[in-house]
């Protein structure tokens, strides 16, 4: 494949965003609609690998059925002229949470709570459909920057996900034989190798991310993989406020509850998690809530030029990640602007992710993310304004009815007063009767 090639008669290859031993990710333009997308292409020879195909098309199916602004959009899938399968996704601008944590360190509590509450809302949409992600980590949370400067977190890489009750996905392995998933973010039940993994495992992984975002350190650290698994299964984490006392207690309590090893005692549903995080955010002082630099409302710094799905990205490089990952590193261009192709990692026995590339000055990027997320945000604002207008109209109607009632009562009172005055006037105008004469013994009015 090379720039200028046409796939399926409509997707024109613009430039590569990343490549690896399993395939490549390109920025493309739909020649029919003139919209830009990211397209992930699996190598033709891997189309014969059942496990690779299973992950690849599972990604498309899962993301295709989850419609939420916190989940990356998949628009199309098909087969190229050379037989290679591909997935068409939204092209995002921004950076991964892993890159943000590496470059900026700990995230302000209000910012972290807002982002993760939004992610939990998107995760809820997956869980109600029976889909468990199973590989949530900072590299799979992308901070997509909208034209307005608003930051919209996006969940990536549902390639390792599993439908509830489906056991065959548990046995998918990488080429090296390692079970898919990121060790530092695995739940205790994943570390034990349990087959029945449900949405509470994803909540644990979000808890590890929140802990890391708030303290700039992992809750569990060990010298090697085996020791890490033992720590996750058996050792308690240091309470969040013992590491970062500046974190509000309400938020710290939520994170500590998310990291409960007994999943029966853990926060049980993504919706409950979102509500708890939103309540913790609302409990923060107003100056903390409204002074969030770089929150979903804005991103002050320029995005990094790298986002690696395994969390091993480096500034100035494109998707430099560990063995088994989707993309290899490429030198970054020197021109400003960043366009990130969302590579979800479902494709090829590797933890796929987001791949970044520098955007040329002359290019514009009418992204699906911009239209989708911006419309959602605009609709939310319109709905709030409509609610306010309804309240104002209801109050005005009540005031009008009250004024009309007062006017009616005043008119009735005035009418009664006028009738009373007319009656009194009529009574006063009536002629008085002539006094009766009294005569006794021939004397008129003798006085007795």
UniProtKB/TrEMBL annotation:
PROSITE patterns on file: PROTEIN_KINASE_ATP, PROTEIN_KINASE_DOM, PROTEIN_KINASE_ST
Annotated residues for binding of ATP: 40
Entry keyword annotation includes Zinc: no
Keywords tagged on the record: ATP-binding, Kinase, Nucleotide-binding, Transferase
Segments of skewed composition (Low complexity): 295-319, 420-430
MF (Gene Ontology): ATP binding; protein serine/threonine kinase activity
Residue ranges constituting the Protein kinase domain according to the UniProt record: 11-281
Pfam families reported for this sequence: Pkinase (PF00069)
Domain of life: Bacteria
Signal sequence region: none
Disordered: region residues: 291-332, 411-448
Name of protein: Protein kinase domain-containing protein
Lineage: Bacteria, Pseudomonadati, Myxococcota, Polyangia, Polyangiales
């Amino acid at each position: 494949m090379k720039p200028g090639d046409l796939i399926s008669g409509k997707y024109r290859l613009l430039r590569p965003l990343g490549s690896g031993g399993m395939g490549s990710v390109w920025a493309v333009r739909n020649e029919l609609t003139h919209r830009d997308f990211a397209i992930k292409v699996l190598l033709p020879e891997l189309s014969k690998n059942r496990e690779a195909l299973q992950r690849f098309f599972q990604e498309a199916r899962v993301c295709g059925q989850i419609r939420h602004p916190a989940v990356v959009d998949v628009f199309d899938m098909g087969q190229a002229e050379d037989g290679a399968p591909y997935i068409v996704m939204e092209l995002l601008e921004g950076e991964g949470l892993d890159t943000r944590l590496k470059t900026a360190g700990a995230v302000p509590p209000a910012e972290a709570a807002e982002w993760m509450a939004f992610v939990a809302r998107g995760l809820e949409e997956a869980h109600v459909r029976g889909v468990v992600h199973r590989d949530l980590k900072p590299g799979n949370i992308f901070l997509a920057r909208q034209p307005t400067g608003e930051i919209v977190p996006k969940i990536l890489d549902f390639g390792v996900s599993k439908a509830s009750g489906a056991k065959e996905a548990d046995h998918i392995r990488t080429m090296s034989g390692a079970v898919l998933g990121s060790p530092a973010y695995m739940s205790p039940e994943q570390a034990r190798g349990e087959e029945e993994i449900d949405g509470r495992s994803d909540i644990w992984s979000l808890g590890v991310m929140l802990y890391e975002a708030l303290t700039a350190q992992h809750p569990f650290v060990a010298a090697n993989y085996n020791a890490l698994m033992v720590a996750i299964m058996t050792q308690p984490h240091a309470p969040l406020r013992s590491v970062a006392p500046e974190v509000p207690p309400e938020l710290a309590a939520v994170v500590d509850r998310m990291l409960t090893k007994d999943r029966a005692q853990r926060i049980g549903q993504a919706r409950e998690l979102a509500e708890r995080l939103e309540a913790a955010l609302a409990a923060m002082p107003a100056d903390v809530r409204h002074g969030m630099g770089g929150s979903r409302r804005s991103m002050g710094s320029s995005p990094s030029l790298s986002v690696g799905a395994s969390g091993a990205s480096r500034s100035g490089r494109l998707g430099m990640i560990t063995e088994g990952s989707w993309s290899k590193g490429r030198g970054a261009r020197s021109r400003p602007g960043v366009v990130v192709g969302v590579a979800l990692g479902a494709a090829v026995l590797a933890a796929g992710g987001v791949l970044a590339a520098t955007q040329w000055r002359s290019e514009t990027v009418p992204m699906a993310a911009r239209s989708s997320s911006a419309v959602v945000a605009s609709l939310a604002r319109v709905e709030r304004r409509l609610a306010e207008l309804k309240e104002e109209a209801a109050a005005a109607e009540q005031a009008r009815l009250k004024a009309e009632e007062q006017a009616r009562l005043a008119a009735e009172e005035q009418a009664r007063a006028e009738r009373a005055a007319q009656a009194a006037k009529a009574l006063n105008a009536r002629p008085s009767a002539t006094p009766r004469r009294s005569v006794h013994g021939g004397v008129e009015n003798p006085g007795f």
